[in-house]
Each structure stands twice: as C-alpha cells, then as structure tokens.
Amino acid sequence: MADAQPVFSRERLDAVLFDLDGVLTRTAEIHAEAWKRLFDDYLSERPATAGEDHSRFDDDRDYRRYVDGRPRLKGVKHFLLARGIDLPEGEPDDPPEHETLHGLGNRKNALFRELIEQRGVAVYACAVDLVRRLRRSGFRTAVVTASKNCELILQQAGLDGLFDKHLDGVEAEALELAGKPDADTFVEAAHQLGCEPKRAAVIEDATAGVMAASRGHFGLVIGIDRDGQRESLLNKGADRVFDDLCQIGIESAHRETPPLLEEMALISDRLADKQPALFLDYDGTLTPIVERPADAQLSHSMRRALRDAAEQMPLAVISGRDLDDVSALVGIDSLIYAGSHGFDIRGPDLRMELPEGIDALDALQQAADRLEARLADVAGVRIERKRFAVAIHVRQVADEDLPQVREAVDQTRRSLDGLRQTGGKRLFELRPDVDWDKGQALRWLLSELGLEGPDVLPLYLGDDDTDEDAFRALRRLGGISILVSETARPSAADYRLRAPDDVEALLTSLTESERHA
Ligand SMILES: O=P(O)(O)OC[C@H]1O[C@H](O[C@H]2O[C@H](CO)[C@@H](O)[C@H](O)[C@H]2O)[C@H](O)[C@@H](O)[C@@H]1O
After folding, report:
1. Are 178 and 184 in contact, with CB atoms under 8 Å apart?
2. What percent of the chain has pLDDT over 70?
3. For residues 346 and 329, what is the distance between their CA atoms, to the nearest angstrom?
4. DSSP 82
5. Pairing outcome for strands 419-424 and 427-432
6. Would the CA dihedral through 52, 53, 56, 57 be positive or negative?
7. What is the reported pLDDT for 269?
8. Superfamily of domain 5-24+122-250
9. Which phi and psi (to 5°) does residue 367 adopt?
10. Which residue's CA is minimally distant from atom 13 of ligand 1?
11. Are the C-beta atoms of 17 and 200 separated by less than 8 Å?
12. Are 264-353+436-515 and 357-432 equal in CATH topology?
C-alpha cells in the first residue's frame, strides 16, 4: 500500500461500482476459454460455405473485440457476423445444440459453469482489499456486470456479502436495460444506491465498460489494464488507468472516526469573535430514534434549550420530515424550519418551495398511492407522505419481507418519471430527482439570512446519511460539523457527540457563551 495514490475522496464521491470479470475475479480467462471452445467447436462442425471465415477463435484479439464485457447474446452475434455467419436469434430457452444465437449462447454458458465448478473462482486480492477499504470509509459499493452467473461467481469466490448491490445480466434483462457499452446498467445501479452518477466512480477492465461509464457521465472512470490495453481504455473514456487496484488509495482528508467532542473548548477556540449560526437535524439529533415516527417527541428540556439558543443566535432545523410535521414537533414559532430534506423552507420572514420539487408532486402522489396498494399486506410497513418525499419505513418489517419492499420501491420509482431513491435509518425514500439536499438547503439559508461573511461560524449537527450532504457543504465553507452517533463510523463530520443529551448540553453551553460574549 506504500505507493497507493489517493484517488477516491468522500468529498467528491459516494459510491464505487465494480465490474466483475477481470476486475474482481479472475474469470476473464475462464470466459475466454469457454468462448474459444464454443466457437472452435461450432466453426469446425459447420460445413464450409463461401463468404464465411472458419478460422479458430483468437482468445486475445477476438475475445477483446467481440465478447469482452458485452451481453452474451451480443457477443455470439458480433463474432459470428464478423465471420460472415448470420444466425437467427431463436428463443432464450433454446437448448445448447440449437443453431441459433440463444442456443450457442446457452452452450457457452454451460461450458463456463462447468469450468467454474471444476476449478473454482480466484479473486484479485487487491480488488477485494480496495472494496473493504472503501466500505470502511463510508463508500457504497456495487457489482455491475453483464454476467448472468454473477451470484454463482460471487458465491464461489466468497464475495457474496461484500457489496451493497449486485446488478447482473438477469436483472438488466428484467428491467430491459441495454448492456455495456450503453450506460443503463451503471446508471441504474448508481440510482439504486441512492446516488447520482456524477458522485460515483466506475472501475472497469473492458473498453465496452469504460465507454458505458463515460457515456453515463460518471464522476470518475478508472480503467484496469491487466493485459496492455492502457491506450484503448484511455481513448474510450477512462480518466485514469492503473495496472492493479493496490495502486488506488483513499484520500485521508476523510476521517473514519470523528473524535468525540468532549470539551466545549474545542469549538470555543474556533468561535473566537465569531457569531455562531446553528443548523440542526431533528430525528436522532434532537430526539432519540424510536420505533414509530409519531413517538419522536421533543423533551421539554430540549425545547427550552432550543428556545434559549435561538435568542442568542440564528437557528434552523433542517429535517427529512414534512415541514408541518417537524415544525409542530418542535413547536417554537420563531425558528426557521426546512422540511423534506430542504425542499420546503419556512421562517418568520422566509418562504421557499423548490420549484423543481413542485414539478414532481404528481409523481410523488402516484408513488405513495401505488406503494400503499402494493404493500398493504406487508406487516409493519409504514408509508409516510411528506410534501416533497415519500418515506417507506421498515423498522417493524420482518427481515424476510424486506426484499419485497425493496423491489416494490424500486419498481415504483422506475414506473414514474422524475423521482430518485435515497435511504435513511430503516427507511427507503423516494424524492424528486433534483440536485438538492440538506447541504444545498444549508447553503441557501446561509445566503438568504446574510450569514456568509467571515464573522459567522455555521455549525451543523446530524445523525443520518442525509446529513452527510450538509457536513460536506460545511467543510467547503469552513464551518463545524458534528455527527450524533453512539458509535464511531465513517463520516465527513469534524466531531462526534454520542446522543441528543450531549446536543442539549452543547446548545446550553453555546447559549451561555454568547450571553456573556
Ligand atoms: O432528517 P431527520 O429530521 O433526521 O429525519 C429523518 C427521518 O426521520 C424520521 O424517521 C427516522 O426516525 C423515526 C423516529 O425515531 C424512526 O422510527 C425511523 O426509523 C427513522 O428513519 C422520519 O419519520 C422521516 O420522515 C425522516 O426522513
């Protein structure tokens, strides 16, 4: 690891998508062998015909040009056409002896599975190590492959529990996604991880794969050059090319475990003569997380601490909840509230509804209606309709029912335009597919409230993934971000407090300092 270069940064990226064959597993050689056996056998059996070329499959040149990284059917078709052979497509369940594209594709698959079962699957140790390092640093990870054998390969390689998402050829077909070099599968996987392509990286060893990632406008496209393809990978859209994944490091600017904020002195020093401006998340920050959202009531002492603080400094609550819900729960009229993750903002002299959010209202209502109907029989599901989001709570859902909920949310999102899926603590969420989050809302508030000057020190406190957007925004602005979490975990925050009680103590302490300033 000594010479690893810092390539991934949580400031710029949330997720990393890995191709399977040739990046994570050494299955490329087995694929090449299965393709070669298929084509060599087929071409030698086929009667010589004018205009056809029956020379043997070149497991380097032909492999790369026609089949590497492509869906199986396209691989068969492109190679045979290059040899002057135009077979009918046939049916997906054609048996291996049928002389159709599907029949030959199924023959190749049977050969591949046979080889894997005989020999097992070897992994690239550096790739597996990188996935583990990324996960420890808070990146979401996915395998995105045209292979329909993904699950078998990951199991054989012992990697089946390592990723947040597997998007394979079976799912791509069911969703009618075009294969690489089209961008569809990568874009879909990024969305299923709750992130925009520009905040995700792709790691690929095939030119079809780097083309796909480049067409999808991913934030970073990494090519892995295992066999002298550096120039082609760069020409087809790779931003950087490495020989191996051990060369890839993670920027150390991101701390995996923010230190506990144990002494007010730590931030008193940074406050100096500055005016603090406080931005607070609600659930998990001002109240403990509880089983039912309606039970997350603010304590009297926290309400008093908030009211006192708001007399000394600007104070806003930025929540994932609906605006009316969170303002009623806090119950202090003089505060500023941002609901639905900042799409809906209201304060004594302030009102903003993000126009792009209004455009998505119909889709949100349809999503809520469809999910209510579809999940009516799943015990424990709670659907929370907010003005600019729909949350599907699964805290009380049995583990075995979770895949059904996940699939319903995913299919609902795909059936409607203009929504994206994000997550949270034991919930799935559909939001307008707009580049707007708590970080953007925080920046908007600082500007609207005239708090952008050097004499102001913004502080943001939050506990959830959605608060990471605000932590990152504050880093750029030089503010102080504080994660509220019992345990240390990867975060862009500067410090950590353990629980809402600590938050209350910090509010009281800041209020006292300001009173005496
Ligand atoms: O941004 P926040 O103010 O933290 O809101 C995030 C979500 O909070 C609520 O759900 C979470 O808290 C519930 C009560 O403790 C808990 O039961 C649930 O599992 C948590 O996800 C709220 O209901 C959501 O709308 C917010 O998005």
Report:
1. yes
2. 98
3. 15
4. H
5. antiparallel
6. negative
7. 79
8. HAD superfamily/HAD-like (3.40.50.1000)
9. -60, -45
10. 293
11. yes
12. no
Say if residue 402 is exposed, middle or buried (CB neighbours under 10 Å; 0-12, 13-18, 19+).
Answer: middle
Q: Beta-carbon neighbour count of residue 300 at 10 Å?
A: 8
DSSP letter for 466, please.
G
User: Which residue's structure tokens are 């392509």?
Assistant: 197
Q: Which atom of ligand 1 is nearest to the CA of 467?
A: 1
Residue in 290, 317, 364, 427 to alter for ligand 1 test, most ligand atoms within 8 A of Cβ: 427
Coil, strand or helix at 43: helix
Write the CATH number of the domain with boundaries 357-432.
3.30.70.1020
514 neighbors 456 (Cβ within 8 angstroms): no
**Ligand 1 site, CB within 6 A:** 281-284, 289-293, 296, 319-321, 384, 391, 393, 395, 424-427, 464, 466
In the CATH scheme, what is the code of domain 264-353+436-515?
3.40.50.1000
ipTM of the complex, rounded to two decimals:
0.98
Ligand 1 atom index nearest CA of 292: 17
Q: How many A from CA of 236 to the centre of ligand 1? A: 43
User: What confidence tens digit (pLDDT) does each residue in 460-496 have?
Assistant: 999 999 999 999 999 888 899 999 998 888 888 988 9
User: Hey, which residues are catalytic here?
Assistant: 281
Distance (Å) from CA 377 to ligand 1 centroid: 23
3-state secondary structure 427-443: EEEEEECCCCCHHHHHH
Which spans in 264-347 are helix H? Answer: 264-271, 300-312, 323-330
What is the model's pLDDT at position 2?
Answer: 38
Q: What are the extents of the domains in the chain?
A: 5-24+122-250, 28-119, 264-353+436-515, 357-432
Dihedrals phi, psi of 241, to nearest 5 degrees: -125, 130
- Per residue in 254-281, pLDDT (tens digit) is 456 677 787 777 788 788 789 999 999 9
Q: Whose CA is nearest to atom 10 of ligand 1?
A: 293
Beta bridge partners of 201: 16, 220
Helix or strand (DSSP H, E) at 505: helix 500-515
Please give the number of the atom of ligand 1 that sits closest to the Cα of 438. Answer: 1
Tokens of 160: 């089946």
Please state whether the predicted TM-score (pTM) of the whole model is above 0.95: no
Closest ligand 1 atom, CA of 293? 14
| Alpha carbons within 13 A on the beta-carbon side of 456 | 18
Higher pLDDT: 59 or 182? It is 182
Distance 156 CA to ligand 1 centre (A): 38
Distance 109 CA to ligand 1 centre (A): 46
Say yes or no to pLDDT of 244 above 60.
yes
Residues 6+ apart with CB under 8 A from 75: 35, 66, 67, 105, 108
Query: Which of 280, 283, 390, when mutated, tests ligand 1's pocket best, judged by the most ligand atoms within 8 Å of its CB?
Result: 283
Q: How far is it between the farthest Cα atoms of the chain? A: 96
> How far apart (Å, rounded) are the C-alpha atoms in residues 323 and 291?
21
Which ligand 1 atom is the nearest neighbour of the CA of 427? Answer: 21
Output the CA 374–ligand 1 centroid distance in Å: 22
